[in-house]
Amino acid sequence: MLALAACAPGSLAPAPSPTRAARPSASASASATPEPSADPAPDRPVLFASLAASDGLAIVDPDRPEPLLDVVEVGRAPWGVAAHEGTAYVATADGLAIVDLAARERTALVPYLHQPAPQAGAEGFGEYRDGGLGIAVSPDGEQVAVAVHRWPDPAWLEVYDVDEGAFTGSADVGIRPFDVLADPEGDWFATVDHDSYSVSVVGRATLAVERHEIAPFGDLGFAGWEKPHYGAVTADGRIALPFQGLVTVLLDPATGATDRVEMTANSHSHGVAAAPDGTLVTAGTGAFGTARGMPNASFLDPASGDERVVPLEHPHETVAIWQPEPDVPWTAVLGGGFTRDGWWDGLTLVDPATGAVREVPLAGRPQHVIAAVLPAE
Predict the structure, then answer these.
(1) 262-276: per-residue pLDDT in tens?
(2) From 316's CA, which of 50, 155, 291, 369 has a CA 20 to 30 Å away?
(3) Are the C-beta atoms of 375 and 101 separated by less than 8 Å?
(4) Burial (CB count <10 Å: 0-12, 13-18, 19+), residue 137
(5) Quick one: which of 254, 235, 280 has its CA closest to 188?
(6) What is the pLDDT of residues 332-346, one digit of tens each?
(7) Is 312 exposed, middle or buried (0-12, 13-18, 19+ CB in 10 A)?
(8) Does RNA-binding show up as a keyword for this record (predicted)?
(9) Domain 217-311 has CATH 2.40.50.150
C-alpha cells in the first residue's frame, strides 16, 4: 500500500497538536481568544473560520475591539466552510454541519454517503484525518458539494440537496481534495486534488468528471512538495492554482487549456483568493521543496504579472477577502491554521496598498476563512 504524504514526504500521520481547543471563557488568559463581543450591525459582513483543532466555527468581526462574536459547535475537526443566505455549511470529520446563522446554532449533522469509520485521539484531527475537506455551495444555493476523503479508498465529491436535506449523489475525484470550487455560472463543481496533482471538474447535471493534471514541476508522487492545494475562480472563469510561489497556473475548466503566470514570492503556496479587482492573493508558507523563501503573502495581477510580496511572521493556510463596505478598500485575511508545524492561533490581515500587517488572535487553529453576511437574530 502506498504511504500517503501531504505537503511533507513521509508516512500517514496526524498533523501536530491536533487536540480539542477549549471554548473561550472568563478565565481565559490574555493570549487566548477574547470573549464573544456585541453583535455587529445587521447585514454587515463578518468572517467565518473553521477551528480545525476543535469542534467550532468562529464568527469574527476583525474591525471590532473584541473581534470574536461567537463560536458555534459544528463537529469534530472542521475543514472547509461555505455560506449562502443565512446558512453556513461546514465539512467536518463526521459529517456535513448545517448552521442557522441567525440562531447561531447547528441544526443538522448529515452523514456522508461514504462515511468514514470513527477516528479517536490524534488521528481524528489534522490534514490526514478522514472525512470532509473542501466544500462549496452552488450560486443558486440549491446544492452543496463536499469533498470526502477516506484513505486508502478514492475520494469523492458528494452533492447535498438543500431542499431534500440529504446527499443525493457522488463522483470519484482525485486524492485528498483540499478545496472545492463552484462555477459562478452554476454548471460545475471542481475539486483541487492535492496528492494526485489534478483538478477534477464535475458537471452539476450529470456528475460526469473531467480530470486535468496540473503539475508544472512534474508529478513527483506522494513524496513531492510541488502539489496543488487550493484554487480560486478568476473573473474570466478560469481556476487559478499557485505552486511554490514560483508560478500560478490558470486552468480553463471547459477545455483543460492552461496558461502560466510567473511568480516571485518563492514560498510554498497554500490558500489563494481572488480580490474584487482581480488580484490573486496567495498564502506562502515558507521554504518547502523548490520554494526557498520565508512565509509571505503574494498579491499578483494575473493579467500583467505584476506582484507585490509582503513578508509575514507565520505560515498560513487559507485566504479570504475582507471588504465590510462596498466603497472601502479590500484587505486580505489569512488563516493561521497551517496544516503543518508553524501554525498559529490567529488571523492575519494584510493591506495590499501599504503592506501593513495586523494580527487577530483566535484560538483553535483557524484554517478555512470566508467572508459572509451574518443575519440579525
Answers:
(1) 999 999 999 999 999
(2) 155
(3) yes
(4) buried
(5) 254
(6) 999 999 999 999 999
(7) buried
(8) no
(9) no
